[in-house]
Structures are given as C-alpha cells and as structure tokens.
Design a protein that fits this description.
Helix content is about 60%, strand content about 0%. With about 190 residues, it is mainly α. Helix 2 packs parallel to helix 6 (about 140-170). The longest helix is centred in the middle third of the chain and has 31 residues, at about 70-100. It is elongated and about 85 Å long.
C-alpha cells in the first residue's frame, strides 16, 4: 500500500520558500491523487482461481472493474488518502497563517520603502511620457504567499473532487463529498486520540 505524505517541518521559512512549498504539494498529489487508479487497483484481490485461457477468446468491449473489498477501501482511505489530505491541509493552513501575520523579517522592506520614497520625489512630465507617472510597487512576500495559497487551495479542491469521485466510483460505500468524509475522519481520529 502507498505511504501517506509526510508533513514537512512547518516554519515561516518553509512557507516563504515557494519552490519547497509547491514541491511538497506536487509530490504529495502525484503520489496519492494523481495515481489514484493505480492505488485502487492495488487493493483488488487477485483471482481466487488460476488463469483461465478461455477468458481471452472473446473480447470485452467495456472495461469491467473488479470490486474492491470494502475493508481494503476503508483502510486505504483511513491510512493513506485522508492522512495525505490532512498533511496538505495543515501545510496550507499554517502557511495561510504566516501570510496573514506581520512579517518583521522581510528582507525587502527597506528596498520597497526606498523605491516608494524615490517615486514620491520623482518629477513627472506626463506630456512627454504619459506612462512615466505609473508606479508599481513590489508586493511584500506575505502577499505573494497569499496569492500562491489561493491558487493552491483551488488546485487542492479540484484534485480532491476528482480523487473522491474515483474513490466513490470504485469503492461505492459513501455518498458524502470529499470535505465531509475528511471531516468525519478527523472527528473519528480525535475521538480515538482522547
């Protein structure tokens, strides 16, 4: 069975390192969600009987998927799928907190202030260059992180929806949406831990 994603050490530096943040999310999604069909196929119990050569004598036009043992499906969801989703949720939530907190360690604060001051002192003759009056200050790294997190939350929602649809199709044991199922798993886990 596939291993769930391991949550990285959460620090503000991890969040502001957008390459590391995106890599964690990408690798986690590719290991679990992007390969969901392969993960579910791995849960199918092999045939109880030996290979039957007559099974290849006729062509089956539609793909028939063998049923997956409900216990194996539930175990996969509880031990791999939901923990991976939770690890990504924890990272996104922590980084959202970092993005909305003041950033006293921003290395570009002085540079942005100097650019803003320089722009105020600039004399602009818009008759000679109508575009010279424009000033586009650099975004603080907290705003860059917040924009990235908005994008990643949208991607996460789409990925979970697609994955959950395939899980429901193959396991067929629930009519909840992905977020409800994840919340129920969290609640059950909290009860077991207390």
């Amino acid at each position: 069975m596939t291993e769930p994603s391991v949550q990285p050490n959460l620090t503000p530096q991890f969040c502001f390192n957008t390459v590391a943040l995106r890599d964690f999310l990408r690798i986690s999604r590719s290991a679990i969600d992007d390969s969901i069909n392969q993960n579910l196929n791995a849960l199918v119990t092999p045939a109880q009987q030996g290979f039957d050569p007559t099974s290849t004598s006729s062509r089956i036009t539609r793909a028939t998927s063998r049923p997956i043992d409900p216990r194996a499906c539930q175990e996969f969801k509880n031990k791999v799928l939901f923990p991976s989703w939770q690890a990504r949720s924890d990272v996104l939530t922590y980084c959202a907190y970092v993005a909305t907190s003041p950033d006293p360690d921003d290395p570009e604060v002085a540079q942005r202030e100097a650019e803003t001051e320089k722009n105020r002192e600039r004399v602009v003759d818009e008759r000679l260059d109508p575009y010279s009056g424009r000033y586009f200050p650099r975004e603080p790294r907290t705003e860059i992180l917040a924009n990235l997190l908005r994008q990643e939350r949208s991607v996460e929602s789409i990925v979970r929806s697609r994955t959950w649809g395939l899980v429901l199709e193959r396991c067929g044991d629930s009519f909840q949406d992905a977020e409800q199922a994840l919340n129920n798993w969290r609640t059950g886990r909290e009860r077991r831990n207390t």
